[in-house]
Amino acid sequence: MLINSAVYHDGRIVAEPGLDGVSEALESRSGFVWIALRDPTDDELGLLQRELDLPPLAVEDARKGHQRPKVEEYGDMLFAAMHLLEVGADGNLEVGEVHVFVGPRFVVSVRHNSQQGFLGVRGRAEREPHLLGQGPGFVFYALMDAVVDRYFPLIDAVEAELEQVEESMFQPGQDRQAVVQKLFGLKQRLATLRHAVTPLLEVTSKLHGGRVPAVCMALQDYFRDVYDHLLRIQGSIDAARETIIAATQVNLTLVTIDESLVTKRLAAWAAIFAASTALAGVWGMNFEKMPELKWAFGYPMALGAILLVSGALYWRFKRLGWL
Amino acid sequence: MLINSAVYHDGRIVAEPGLDGVSEALESRSGFVWIALRDPTDDELGLLQRELDLPPLAVEDARKGHQRPKVEEYGDMLFAAMHLLEVGADGNLEVGEVHVFVGPRFVVSVRHNSQQGFLGVRGRAEREPHLLGQGPGFVFYALMDAVVDRYFPLIDAVEAELEQVEESMFQPGQDRQAVVQKLFGLKQRLATLRHAVTPLLEVTSKLHGGRVPAVCMALQDYFRDVYDHLLRIQGSIDAARETIIAATQVNLTLVTIDESLVTKRLAAWAAIFAASTALAGVWGMNFEKMPELKWAFGYPMALGAILLVSGALYWRFKRLGWL
Amino acid sequence: MLINSAVYHDGRIVAEPGLDGVSEALESRSGFVWIALRDPTDDELGLLQRELDLPPLAVEDARKGHQRPKVEEYGDMLFAAMHLLEVGADGNLEVGEVHVFVGPRFVVSVRHNSQQGFLGVRGRAEREPHLLGQGPGFVFYALMDAVVDRYFPLIDAVEAELEQVEESMFQPGQDRQAVVQKLFGLKQRLATLRHAVTPLLEVTSKLHGGRVPAVCMALQDYFRDVYDHLLRIQGSIDAARETIIAATQVNLTLVTIDESLVTKRLAAWAAIFAASTALAGVWGMNFEKMPELKWAFGYPMALGAILLVSGALYWRFKRLGWL
Amino acid sequence: MLINSAVYHDGRIVAEPGLDGVSEALESRSGFVWIALRDPTDDELGLLQRELDLPPLAVEDARKGHQRPKVEEYGDMLFAAMHLLEVGADGNLEVGEVHVFVGPRFVVSVRHNSQQGFLGVRGRAEREPHLLGQGPGFVFYALMDAVVDRYFPLIDAVEAELEQVEESMFQPGQDRQAVVQKLFGLKQRLATLRHAVTPLLEVTSKLHGGRVPAVCMALQDYFRDVYDHLLRIQGSIDAARETIIAATQVNLTLVTIDESLVTKRLAAWAAIFAASTALAGVWGMNFEKMPELKWAFGYPMALGAILLVSGALYWRFKRLGWL
Amino acid sequence: MLINSAVYHDGRIVAEPGLDGVSEALESRSGFVWIALRDPTDDELGLLQRELDLPPLAVEDARKGHQRPKVEEYGDMLFAAMHLLEVGADGNLEVGEVHVFVGPRFVVSVRHNSQQGFLGVRGRAEREPHLLGQGPGFVFYALMDAVVDRYFPLIDAVEAELEQVEESMFQPGQDRQAVVQKLFGLKQRLATLRHAVTPLLEVTSKLHGGRVPAVCMALQDYFRDVYDHLLRIQGSIDAARETIIAATQVNLTLVTIDESLVTKRLAAWAAIFAASTALAGVWGMNFEKMPELKWAFGYPMALGAILLVSGALYWRFKRLGWL
C-alpha cells in the first residue's frame, strides 16, 4: 500500500507522483523522490522496481521479508533492512521490518508487519528544508535514527523490570518460579533486541570513518551519532544480559537455600513429635511392674516430661535457627 | 553412479556424453559440461579425474568423504564440499555430502549418503538459458543456493519445537525429564546444523567482495546473497542455542522448585499425622490416674482435640502454601 | 552552573572571563581558556556553543547525558565523555558523568550528577606552570588522570570485600543467603566499574602510539600512562569477576552440602526415635501371653533395650559423621 | 638411540652413514640425509648438532622435551615439535613427542616416550621415489601427515563412547556417578587431544598460502591438506566438547529429578504408614467409654478402616505418579 | 637497598661504582653498568634517575609498585615490570615484582617484596663473558628467563595437586567440602599465575619477529625462546583451569548424588520402622474382640509378622540398592 510519495527540491515538495509516475516525475525536474510503502503487494514492488531500476535481489528480499538487519551496496544504490520492535499483547516483543532503498535520486521505505509509521520523520524533515536539501542520504539517516531511537524505551523497560526483580529476589517468601519465569522472559526480550541491534551496529560502523558509500559521504558525523546510540544500547543489552545470567544462578542458589530451610524445619518438628511419641509409647507399654503408673502424680509427671523434652528440643532448634 | 551428464552451450544442451567421452565432447565444441554423480565408485572417480585433469588431493577427499564444508582453490579450479542434512527416522539429522568440482569448462557434483538430488536445480537452470549461459560459476551458485535453501526448514522446525517447549515449561505438572531430553535433542540437532553452516559461511565470504576466484567473479552479488542466507541461518542457530542453554538452566531450577514443593507437602502431612499420633499415644498411656479417661465424653473430646490440632495445622500449612 | 573560567598563558592565569566573554577574551590575547561547568542549563551550553563554535551533535550529547565513555573527533576538536563513580548511600555505585570539549585554544569540562569536583586538578596544574603551558591537551590528560585515579579505591574496596567473603565462605555455619547476596552486589558493582573502564580503555589506546589527534600529540607518554592505569584496573576487574563467578558456584555446592548434612542428621535422629517407638509399640501390644510383661525386671529390661538400641544407633551415626 | 640414517638422491638410498659420518656423507655427494632417533642421549644430540650445525636453542628443546606443538624457523632451517598420543593401560591418553629438524639437505626426527615409529612412513616414501625426490620438505610433510592421521582413531573413539553415554543417559536406573565419571574422563581425553591439535593447526596455517618457509614452498597443497585434516579434527573436538558440557549439565538435572522421585515415594509411603499408625493409636487409647471397642465387629471394622485409608492414599499417590 | 653494581666491558667487570658514581664511571670508560636494587628508598631511585636520566613516569611506576607485567619503550630505553611469585606460609602465592630499566649502556633491576634474588643470574652471566659481552639486552633476557623459569615449578605443583583431587574425587566417602575448597584454592593460584604470565606473553611477542626495540634486536631468538616458555605455561594454566571448572561441576553433581543416596537410605529405614510401628499399633488397639490376642502363640506370631515385613522390606531395598 502506498502511504506517501513526494518529490523534493531544495527541501520542499514540488510534486506528488503516483507509483507509476515516479520515473517521469524525476526526469522532468531535479530533486529526489521519497516514497513510503506499507506491506506492499508484489505488483507494487514490481512497478517500483521498473520505475527506479531497483536491483532484483534486493527487491526479492523486500518481497519475502524476514531479513536480518543489513546494509548492502548495489552499485551507487544502498539497500537497508532494519527491525521494528513493538511490545505485543502478551508483553513479548514483536518484530516488524522496514526496508529502505536509497539511490542518488530516490528513497523508498517499505514497512512490514508493524504499526510504527514514519510520518513524524517526514514531518520533521519537511520543517527543516536545509537538512532535507542534503538529499536521499539525509532521509536515510533520519529513518535510521528514528528506528534506533525507538529501541531506547524497550531496553529501558527491560532494565526497569530487571531492577525490580533484583530488589525483590532476596526478600523472603518470594515465588521463585515467578522470578525464574520473569528472568527467562526478559532474556528472550533481550535476545530479540540484540538481533535487531548487533547486525545494525556492524553495518553502521561502515557508514562513517573508512570507505563510505557515496550517498552517505557528507553525513558521516550523523551516522557516527547513530552508531554511538547503537553502541549505548548494545552496552545496556550486554549489562542486562549478564545481570540476568547472574540473577538466574543466584535464584537457583536461593531455591536450594529455601529448600534447605524447609528441610530443617521438617527435621525439627519431626524430632519434637517423634520424641513425644516415643515417650508416650514407653508409658503405654503393658508391663505389670511399672511403678510410676501407680503414682498419684504419674500422669502429670509424664505429661510434664513430654512437654519438657519437646520444649527443650524446640528451644534448641530455635537457637540453631531451624525453626 | 552417473546420474546426468550434459554439455551446455549458450544455456542449451548440445551433447550428453558418457563419463569416458567428456574430454572428447569438450574438445570438439565450445560450452561446458555439467556432470552429476551419486555415491561414485573409485573407478568412476578415477576416470573423471583423468578426463578432466582433476587435482589428486581433491579427488582423494571426494573419494573418502566425511569432509567439512569448504571451498579450496587448485589453480583455476575450485573444489567445494557441503553438507546435505536430512531428518532421519529417529528425528535426528543425518549428514550427507555433496562435493563440487568447478573448472573453467566443467562442473561435477558428487553426492554421498543423501536422498536429496539436484534434478530440480538442473531443471530450473535449463528453463533459464540466459542464466545458465553464464557458465560453470552459475551452476556452482545454483547448487550452493539449493543446498542452503534446504537448511531453512530444518532450523524452522527446531525453532518451532523450541517455542513449544518454552511455552509448556512453566506449566505445572510437566515431565521434567522429557523437557530436558527434548532440549538436549534440539541442541544436538543445532550442533549438526552449525557444523554445516559455520564453515560454509566462512568460505562463502571469500566468494564476494575481496579477491574472488575467477570462476565466481561475475556472480559476486549472487554469492553475497547466499552468504546473507547463511548469516540469517547462523543468527537463528545462535539464538536457538542461547535459548536452549537458558531453558536447560531454567528447567534445573524448576526441578529443584518442584522438589521443594514436594518436600513441603511431605513436611506438612508428616507434621499433621505426627501430632495426631503423639496425642493418641498420650491417651494410650497406662497410668492409673488419668481422670479424663473416665469422663463420659473423654473419647469424643480426645477425638475432637486430635481433629482440632490436625485441622489447625492443615489450615496453617494451607495458608503457607505448603499444601 | 559555571564553576570556573580562566585564560592561561604560559601556564599562568591572565583573565577570568564570564561565559559570554570567552570568544572576546581569546581573540584579544594568546593562550587558552579552561572552563568548568556543573549540571549546566541548556542556555549555558547554548551560549558556550556559540562562543567556542562547538559541534552541535557533541553539545546535544552533553545536554542529554547518559553517554558511554568515549572520545570523538570533530575536525581539530575532541569531545570526551567519562563516568564518575561514587559510593551511594546504599553501598551501590552511582554513576555521574564528565564531558570534556578540547579545542586548540579551549578546554571545557561539564560535570553531571556527581559530587566529585576537579578543583584539585586545577590547583595542581596551576602550581606547575611548565606543564600547564603545554596547553589544552595537558588539561585533558590531567582531567582524565584524575577520573581514572578515582577508580582505584573503588576496585580496591571490591577486592577487600571479596577477600573477606572468600575467607569466611568455607567456615561452618555461614549464612549462605548473605554470601550469595554479597557476591551478587559485588558483581553489580564490578559491572558498573567495567562499563566505566572498558570503553575508556579502548579510546585511550588511540591517544598514543598510532595516529593521534593533534591536541594530544605531544603528550603520548602521558596518555600511555593513563592507558596503563586503565589496563591495571581492567585486570583487577576481570580477576575479581572470575573469583565471584567461582565463589558463587562454590557457594551453591556448599549450600547443597549443608543441606546434605541436615538431611543426614534428620535421617539419624528419625532412625533413633523410630526404633524406640517401634520397640515400645511392641511391648504395648495387648496379647495375653507376653511372658516378659510379667517379669519383675521386665520394664527396666525394656527401657534398657530401648536405650541400648538408641545408643548403638547413635554411636554408629556418630562414627559415620552424620551426627 | 639411532634408528635409521640414509642419504637419498633422486628418491633412492645412496648411503647409510653413522651419526658421526653425516656431514662427510653430505659433502661428498648430492641429495639429503634422513635420520631417525629415539630417546637420544645428550651425546647423540650433541654429535648431531655439530655435524649438521643445528641451532642450540632448538637442540636444547629437543633434549628437554615437554614442548608444545610448534614450528620455528632458524634461518633456512625449521624445528618442529608434535605430540604423539597413545591410549595407555588405564584408557587415558599418554603424550609422547616427535621433534623434527628440517634443513635444506637434512631431516632429523627425534621421538620421545612413544611406541609409535615412523618406519611405515619411510617405507612408503621409498616406494614413491618421485615424491621423495622433492627433498626434506616432503619428508617433513610425510611425518606430519602420519602424526595427524593417528589422531583420527582417537577422536573417533571418544565420539563413539560419547554417543553411547548419550543414548543410555536418559534410560531409567542409570548409575549417575558412572555417567559423570565417564564424561569427565572423555573431557580429559579431549583436552589432551586439543593440546596436540590446536597449536599445530595454528602453525600449519603458516605453511601454505602466505609467506611460507623455503623448504615447504613447493609443497603448499600438501600442507593445506594436513591443515584441512587438523581443522576436521578440531571441529570434532569442539563438537564433542560441547556435547560433554551439555550432557554433564543434563546429568545434574537428571540426578536432581531422580532424587525428586525418591523424595516423592518416601513422602507417599510415609503418609500411608503415618495414617495407619495414627488410626491404630486412636483405638489404642484407654478411655473407658469408647463404644466401638465393645462392638462385635469393632476390630475388623478398624482393620477395614485402616486398610481403606491406606488404600485410598495408595491409589491417590499412584495417580499422582508418586509411586 | 643497593645489592650490586658493576661495569662490564667485553663481559668482564671493570668497575664497581656506588649509586652516585654511575654516570662518572660510564663516562670514563666503555662497556655497560648492571645495577641491582631491592626495595629501594625514594632517595635511591631519585639518585639513579638523575645519574642515568631515567624517564620520570617509569621511575614513578617503580616507586609505587603494584604494576602489571609490561614492557614500555621510552625513546631508546625499555622499562619492564614482571611478577615474582612465591609460595607463602598459607600455601597461597605471594606476588612480588621486579622492574628492569634497560638502556644502551645500563641495566637496572629493582626488586620489591620478594625473597628471590638474581645473584645466580649474575654469576652465570659472568661465567659466560662472550654472552655477557652482548650488552644490556642480554642481561635483560637473562633476568626475564630467570623470572619465567621460576613459574614452572609453581604450575607443576598446581597440576600435581589437581591430579590428586581428580583421582580421589570419584572414590566413595570423600569430604566434598574439602574437595571444593581445594579446587577453589587451586583456581585462585592459577589466577595469580595467569596475571603474571598473560600480559608478559603479550609484550614478549613484541620482542621478536616484527619491529623490535633496538636493545633486543640481536637477541630475537632468545626472546622467542622465552616467549615459547610462556606459551607453554599459559597452555598448562588454561588446561588446569578447564579441569578445575569441570571438576567443580562434577563435584556438585557428586554432592547431589551423595545426598540422593542418603535420602534413599533414610526412606528405606523410615519405611521399615514405620511398618513395624503400624503393625504393633494395630495389636495395641483396645478392641474387646481381637481373637488373636488370646491365642497361645499370638505374641510370637505378631513378632514374626513384624520381623517378616521388616525383613521383606529390607530385602527389597537392598535389591534396589537403597541400603
From TrEMBL, chains A, B, C, D, E:
<comment type="similarity">
    <text>Belongs to the CorA metal ion transporter (MIT) (TC 1.A.35) family.</text>
</comment>
<dbReference type="InterPro" id="IPR045861">
    <property type="entry name" value="CorA_cytoplasmic_dom"/>
</dbReference>
<keyword id="KW-0813">Transport</keyword>
<dbReference type="GO" id="GO:0015095">
    <property type="term" value="F:magnesium ion transmembrane transporter activity"/>
</dbReference>
<dbReference type="GO" id="GO:0050897">
    <property type="term" value="F:cobalt ion binding"/>
</dbReference>
<keyword id="KW-1133">Transmembrane helix</keyword>
<comment type="function">
    <text>Mediates influx of magnesium ions. Alternates between open and closed states. Activated by low cytoplasmic Mg(2+) levels. Inactive when cytoplasmic Mg(2+) levels are high.</text>
</comment>
<dbReference type="InterPro" id="IPR002523">
    <property type="entry name" value="MgTranspt_CorA/ZnTranspt_ZntB"/>
</dbReference>
<feature type="transmembrane region" description="Helical">
    <location>
        <begin position="297"/>
        <end position="317"/>
    </location>
</feature>
<protein>
    <submittedName>
        <fullName>Magnesium transporter</fullName>
    </submittedName>
</protein>
<keyword id="KW-1003">Cell membrane</keyword>
<dbReference type="GO" id="GO:0005886">
    <property type="term" value="C:plasma membrane"/>
</dbReference>
<dbReference type="InterPro" id="IPR045863">
    <property type="entry name" value="CorA_TM1_TM2"/>
</dbReference>
<keyword id="KW-0472">Membrane</keyword>
<keyword id="KW-0406">Ion transport</keyword>
<keyword id="KW-0460">Magnesium</keyword>
<dbReference type="Pfam" id="PF01544">
    <property type="entry name" value="CorA"/>
</dbReference>
<dbReference type="GO" id="GO:0000287">
    <property type="term" value="F:magnesium ion binding"/>
</dbReference>
<feature type="transmembrane region" description="Helical">
    <location>
        <begin position="266"/>
        <end position="285"/>
    </location>
</feature>
<dbReference type="GO" id="GO:0015087">
    <property type="term" value="F:cobalt ion transmembrane transporter activity"/>
</dbReference>
<keyword id="KW-0812">Transmembrane</keyword>
